[in-house]
Amino acid sequence: MTPLPPHGQDASAVLAELRERRAGDLPTHGGRTLAYVYDSGLAEIDELAAAAHALASSANGLDPTAFPSLASMENDLVSAAAGLLGGTAATVGSVTSGGTESCLLAVLAARNARPDIDRPSLVLPATAHAAFHKAAHYFGVRAVTVPVDPRTFRADPAAMAAAVGPDTVLVVASAPSYAHGVVDPLAPIAAAAAQRGVRMHVDACIGGWVLPYLRRLGADVPDFGFGVEGVTSISVDLHKYAYCPKGVSVLLHADADLRRAQYFASADWPGYTMLNTTLQSTRSGGPLAAAWAVLRHIGDDGYLGLAERTAKATATLRSGIEQVPGLRILGDPDATLLAVTTEEAAGFDVFTVADEMRVRGWYVQPQFAHASSPVNLHLTVTAANRGNEQRFLDDLRAAVDAARSAGPVTIDDGLVALLAELDPEQLTGEQFAGLLAGAGLGPGGGLPERMAEINALLSVAPPGLRERLLLEFLGLLYRPEE
């Protein structure tokens, strides 16, 4: 265990230690981390956001009557998001801590609005974000997962409509999906939901702040906002393509009646009457104020320019990747996300390519195979990638050459058979520790520099076993040092 220091340390020493610890993290600026972070490339944004965060960090969003500035800034963010996404004067919303909370609340509101249904269900395409499965798990909602088109990876409107039943409380589609960057055909899906009196949520967490600008730039972006008849709620993250600090998201509802079931109130205790608009109670005003400041500073024309830079970077990277022998793009992305996989006879492994890119200073995110989607590498392209495309493509070609020289990662057939037979629910903690050690995820909680063999092993493990293995590993990471 690491005890508190016996005496307070000098502030400069504390910050120096923090900088030392942060030195081992992935870079959050410069466009070299193509997942998890969003970089506008604007040098002044960090300083502005930090200053705004500091001004409001001690304010508590739990009570807007005590801190009215937070309510006014939240209304401004909701209004800005609604304006981008085709909202009307009736559109309302809430600021949340991130996309997952926004998705959770959309499911919660839909469930709570139908107390007459004993076992409510949620209909979603197989490509929908895992946050909806988390919501189903937390709130006792049955997730009905519908296969997508095996080539385009877009939701199948007919199959989605057929899956809607008398117990369905919410239908979900993506704009775009995270894994492949494609926008689902929302109009027919929303129409089918509306015909049955079911709410329709559009997960635009990643695309809601960039797709409207791409459309203004002339891109053929499918309809996805409140202009689509039947859409009742939309989630959009400001800490993605609005380039605000984490974590700030907005959940929009078409009207206040739809939002009401999201709220929580409790007066049945001797303290203050608890009133919550989100899953959280106490909420620092810092992230809210930082997002408000960033939106005011960049402005509409600024976001249009950032979207243009991002679109050009995405197009350049996509074209360049398609010219690398052995690589191809999955689907036909509509936005700023790319999924890169290998040709069938490529003779190398994308997991090795990811390792080689890491050696060269880039992070690309491995994604495991699922249904018709093979193992691939996810790229989130941001405005900061503009101007650095050729450097990335040169390193990618070198990484592919190195991976081809190394050859495919192979897993022993006996081990594959063993993994297929294991029941994750029956294994003990000690047995999991042995499996983790065998996978190279030791008790120290650290990771090897190269992950190709570990990822290859995890990719052949059944999904349930993979989940348990990684959860056990997560438990190792979050343990105090002895």
From TrEMBL:
PANTHER family: PTHR42735, SPHINGOSINE-1-PHOSPHATE LYASE 1 (PTHR42735:SF6)
InterPro entries named among the record's database cross-references: GrpII_AminoAcid_Decarb (IPR050477), PyrdxlP-dep_de-COase (IPR002129), PyrdxlP-dep_Trfase (IPR015424), PyrdxlP-dep_Trfase_major (IPR015421), PyrdxlP-dep_Trfase_small (IPR015422)
Highest taxon in the source lineage: Bacteria
The protein's name: Glutamate or tyrosine decarboxylase
UniProt GO MF annotations: aromatic-L-amino-acid decarboxylase activity; pyridoxal phosphate binding
UniProt KW keywords: Antibiotic biosynthesis, Lyase, Pyridoxal phosphate
Cofactor(s) listed in the protein's UniProt record: pyridoxal 5'-phosphate
Family stated for the protein in its record: Belongs to the group II decarboxylase family. Sphingosine-1-phosphate lyase subfamily.
N6-(pyridoxal phosphate)lysine modification, residue list: 240
Biological processes, Gene Ontology terms: antibiotic biosynthetic process; carboxylic acid metabolic process
The species this protein was found in: Amycolatopsis marina
Classification lineage: Bacteria, Bacillati, Actinomycetota, Actinomycetes, Pseudonocardiales
Pfam families named in the record: Pyridoxal_deC
